[in-house]
Amino acid sequence: MTGSSRSAKYFFRPLAVGAPTPLTEVPARPSRAIHFFDPSNEKMAAKIPAMVGTVDVLLGNLEDAVKADNKVAAREGLVKIAQSTANLGGQSGPTQLWTRINSLDSPWVLDDLTTLVPAIGDKLDVIMVPKVQGAEDIHYVDRLLAQLEAKAGLDRPILIHAILETARGVASVEEICGASPRMQGLSLGPADLAADRRMKTTRVGGGHPGYLVRQDPQVKDGAADIEGPRSIFQQDLWHYTIARMVDACAMHGIYPYYGPFGDIADVVACEDQFRNAFLLGCVGTWSLHPKQIAIANRVFSPSVDDILHARRVVAAMGDGTGAVMLDGKMEDDASLKQCLVMVRLAEELAAIDPELKKQYDAIETVA
Ligand code: GLV
Ligand code: MG
User: Of all atoms in ligand 1, which is nearest to the CA of residue 63?
Assistant: First the structure.
């Protein structure tokens, strides 16, 4: 902490008189898929009530992908959907309600916040803030939300989720994650981040065939066969950023997410990207099309095999100390801790996903 930072003992005081007390811990609510919809699109909006209970998070998008002429309609559409859809958002519903507001330098964001919080603040679980550059952006939203929550008489704080999509944001990622007790998590924003970094890609997330490693050349007639056949492997353009996000989030007790995967048709590569993020520590991802919800739910739920193994390790490790051999492999306190991460996640997911609960419960019968 630098000399001018707020003291730790004041960190959890409301930033406005009458605002709800900040949370000391971010609730671990399942959020495998954050499904984006455009509230100005009436056809899409009409499908929302039927999606409640089928996806962990529904997010009304007000930012990019909504045309400038539709910004007001999107904001008003979101208010209408939140007010008229049963069981959406707030603390008890099966599906959380999030929004992505416009960027802090845009002409729309002030009206986004001053409209949404009084109208539907009790339903909004998380506000996603795009193009975050540093902790000062979070501080701005933090104070404004406290003022608006106080005025609206809300009794629980709305949380903030930042999109990591600027080079400076990546360089300041730890500071952003720790900027407020409202911080819920971070998503990767690969499209804006690529542009901001001046990467030479034209895609929304995913790999690139040009970003690869190539096997050494074979030797032919005593010389390297440069033009001969060699294996190549595509590398993951996003590995570095996701790994940084995961550490920054874990360090601050908040949650990391993949972001958009724009090639809707390529469900296979989408699943690969999501799985890489899951294995590295992410808890969920965005969904831009209903078919990505199923992929996300599958990938971000531990597999039945993993839970079977994890439960065996937990049972074999007794009081959690020492080491045991299982199937020829050493298990100890540290592998037990990994298994407990999986088992706890499975319990949280089973509590809201009856289909998954059935699969995990069936393990007990077999084991
Ligand atoms: C998401 O907002 C992105 O820019 O990738
Ligand atoms: Mg973006």
Answer: 2
Chain centre to alpha carbon of residue 291: 18
End-to-end CA distance of the chain: 49
The 3-state DSSP class for residue 136 equals helix
**Of the bound ligands, which one is closest to the alpha carbon of residue 205?**
1
Place of tokens 């997410």: 257
Q: Which domains does the chain have, with CATH numbers?
A: 8-205+234-300 (3.20.20.60), 305-361 (no CATH)
Q: Is 197 annotated as a binding residue?
A: no
Going by alpha carbons, the residue nearest to atom 3 of ligand 1 is: 189
103-140 pLDDT per residue, tens: 999 999 999 999 999 999 999 999 999 999 999 999 99
Average pLDDT value for the chain? 95
How far is residue 93's CA from residue 87's CA, in Å, rounded to a whole number? 5
Q: Average pLDDT for residues 84-93, to the nearest whole number?
A: 90
* Global pTM exceeds 0.85: yes
- Ligand 1: lining residues by beta carbon, under 6 Å: 64, 130, 163, 165, 189-192, 204, 259-260
